Amino acid sequence: MSDADWDAIFRKPEVIFARTSPKNKLEIVTRAQALGHICGVTGDGVNDSPALKKADLGIAMNDSGSDVSKEAASMILLDDNFATIVRGIEEGRLIFANLKKSIRYTVTHSIPEVIPQILYIIVPLPPMITSIMILVIDLGFEILAALTYAWEPAESGRSLMRLPPRKPVTMHSIAQLRARAQRHPPPPIDPSTGLPAKKGRLARMAIAVQAPFTRVWWQDRMEKTEGEVLVDGELLSWSYLEAGLISTVSALLVFFVVLNHHGISPRQARLMAKQTNVTYFNKDSPSYTYNGRTFTGEEQFYALNEARTGIMFSIYILQVFNLFICKARFRLPFGRFMFRNIRTFYGFGSGLVLLVLVTYIPPLNAVFNSSYKSIPLYWLIAVGFGCLLLAYATARMLILRKSRPIRWNPTIDGLHMHPTVWSTRQRTKSIEIA
């Protein structure tokens, strides 16, 4: 068959090849891979070995499979049950979805950590969060909370199996694949061995160095590919621009409210940080007088530490809300499925214990630049922003449902039998006999 015939065959949603030889099986796999399909082959006989070896995933039978097929395969099906393959695919989709949720959650907290450092340099402002506090956030509760997504179940039933493939094969993707193959011709054949000629190490290094200065290299990098990736624009938009900014505003507001409670306004904090000949907000800093009130160095130091503690708790509270919001990828962030993973509570509960320890235990708060005088009343500001984040995520999901609805595959309740020429002819004969 010609290339056009194979293209026409693989455009069908389902194809059945009958009475195939080992050579035919190998050709089917090769042709499908040439179009960009991910091929999985199951087999148990010696004649299945070439196709098992060529496929992206060769699966051999454990009980009925031959030794040759097991050696050629990438995986052995222990129970010889094809339904196990379907469950494995579903588990793989669940792992991919949970990885994406974990990245979406983890990246968010970097914005309220970075922006205060930028404001400290540009405005300037007092150092709002210290490096050791960032370590408490990143290596303390953030790691534990992010790991809980490893046990996250699917949002609803077998919804993952109704999603289309992450990288579907379309006419556009086939054209891209063939254009890339033309840009990268195969290496010449070595006449002595009959195999593709291998270049030396220095030649490969020279090609790698010259590649960024070629047009082909840039065409490959700038080429827009179809399908879903682990980190996409929607994930980065949520983490950096949406949830990240809401969390940052909450942290900054808590910081300035706590400072204002001690009598230091945002304007005065800026003026104090702007001084080049004097350093404020240290224990040994000179006193600062404002509106008839004098702030000693110790008062400045403890006020700043209490405001820093407020930022740390604000980031934690917003991330607890974000931890549950990121669970909902296809549904609204409400319902019993949000609380089925009991390890989620262990994750943010241990984070709360850690923050309380480094804040209210006197030997630790001196090390971590926190304040045991921190008033939990100011944490309500972060709780309010957490509710705002939840409402925003709900409205965002409703808008995305209208603008970019999810394309669910139809549910297959049983074997779909479609009329063919043969079945129609047999039915006609039966009617004539009757």
From TrEMBL:
Residues spanning the membrane: 345-365, 377-399
Q: Does the keyword Metal-binding apply?
A: no
Highest taxon of the lineage: Eukaryota
Topology relative to the lipid bilayer, per the entry, is: Multi-pass membrane protein
> Per its UniProt record, what SUPFAM superfamilies does this chain match?
Calcium ATPase, transmembrane domain M, HAD-like
Could you give one GO CC term from the UniProt record?
plasma membrane
Q: Domain Cation-transporting P-type ATPase C-terminal, which positions?
A: 222-395
Family annotation (Gene3D superfamilies): Calcium-transporting ATPase, transmembrane domain, HAD superfamily/HAD-like
Q: What is this protein called?
A: Cation-transporting P-type ATPase C-terminal domain-containing protein
